[in-house]
Design brief:
The protein is built from eleven helices and nine strands. It is an alpha+beta fold. It folds into two domains: about 1-90; about 110-335, 2-Layer Sandwich (BirA Bifunctional Protein, domain 2). The chain has a seven-stranded mixed sheet, with helices on both faces. The mean pLDDT is about 85.
């Protein structure tokens, strides 16, 4: 009796599957076959009516029909899915040769551009790029740089103090102090980032950017510093750039120098940017003071170093002929549009 039912169910459901025209109809057939009240399910439940000796044979036949119907359902479902995919590909295809709608291209901020250009040059020369906190301690910002609390050079910086010992860093040298404590020589690092001083006019801003570099190794000399800076300046401003080194003073370097370059706007002939001198004061540098090395746990008898520091906002103003530093911080889209293609 069950064998006859099974044969009839197989033929009936196979016909339904073949005649299905969409996934919904196919799913209805699946429920009709294998749902809680499905035809095949009901046969499985009626196995208790089969004589014990016939149950293995009948059970095998039911499983064979189940497998056959599941395979037919799977094949038919794949046909519908492939047909739907083909339809979507046909209807939703995109002609990639068609001219696109004009896309408005943004502009890179001058300061971000200078940071990228300088760090790329320094990385090519073997430097690692490191960063540090903008809220800094008095120790790392000043004392670790050989600037104790009574040092007169503190008067040159109007620092934003939060407490007596916590401040907004006035120089990225603090990152160098932290890195010297963590690293073992030899190493070469550059530290770009924001700095803060209470200073505001056409060429100064309370928020500005610096990039400072530090090299510590054996047998470092002023000649190494001058050679490196000459390569750096020429790669930044052009091979025809002239470089001038002048003696100076910084508490954290000894000897110290100021570095001037020929004005990239007038190429040394004199203009409003260089105030007719043909040269621009660009950065300070020098051989690291042995006291700074010793405070960071580095043996100054074995190792020496050199350091240099850029004002990135001033560098951006020179490269892009920007007359007022405030233009860099006004968030005026008209200003940035002028930087397109730079």
């Amino acid at each position: 009796m069950i064998e006859e039912q099974l044969k009839q169910i197989r033929e009936e459901l196979s016909t339904y599957i073949k005649n299905s025209t969409n996934l919904k109809e196919l799913n209805d057939v699946r429920v009709k076959a294998f749902g809680k009240s499905g035809l095949v399910t009901a046969l499985s439940k009626n196995m208790r009516e089969v004589a014990p000796e016939d149950r293995p044979k009948v059970g095998s036949q039911i499983n064979a029909v189940r497998s056959e119907l599941e395979e037919l359902l799977k094949t038919k479902e794949a046909e519908f899915e492939n047909a739907e995919l083909a339809r979507k590909l046909q209807e939703e295809q995109i002609d990639i040769t068609e001219p696109s709608i004009k896309v408005e291209i943004g502009a890179y901020h001058p300061v971000a551009d200078v940071i990228d250009r300088l760090t790329d040059i320094c990385v090519d020369m073997g430097f690692s790029v490191v960063e540090g906190p903008e809220i800094e301690s008095d120790y790392y910002n000043f004392e670790a740089m050989n600037i104790p609390k009574n040092h007169p050079s503190r008067d040159m910086q109007d620092t934003f103090f939060i407490t007596d010992e916590i401040l907004l860093r006035s120089q990225t040298s603090a990152v160098q102090a932290r890195e010297m404590e963590k690293r073992k020589p030899p190493f070469k690092i550059v530290c770009p980032g924001k700095t803060y001083r209470n200073d505001s006019d056409a060429t100064h801003s309370p928020i500005f950017h610096q990039l400072e570099g530090l090299v510590v190794d054996e047998n470092i000399s002023m000649a190494d510093l001058k050679s490196m800076l000459t390569i750096l300046m020429k790669r930044l401003y052009g091979e025809d750039t002239k470089i001038r080194f002048r003696p100076s003073f910084f508490p954290f370097t000894e000897p110290s120098i100021e570095v001037d370059v020929s004005c990239p706007n007038c190429h040394g002939t004199g203009c409003s940017i260089c105030k007719g001198t043909g040269m621009l004061e660009l950065l300070g540098a020098g051989v690291v003071n042995p006291k700074v090395l010793e405070m960071s746990g580095i043996d100054s008898k074995k190792y020496r170093g050199f350091a240099f520091g850029f004002g990135l906002d001033r560098t951006a103003m020179i490269l892009d002929s920007i007359s007022n530093i405030r233009s860099l911080y006004r968030n005026d889209i008209r200003f940035l549009e002028q930087m397109k293609g730079e």
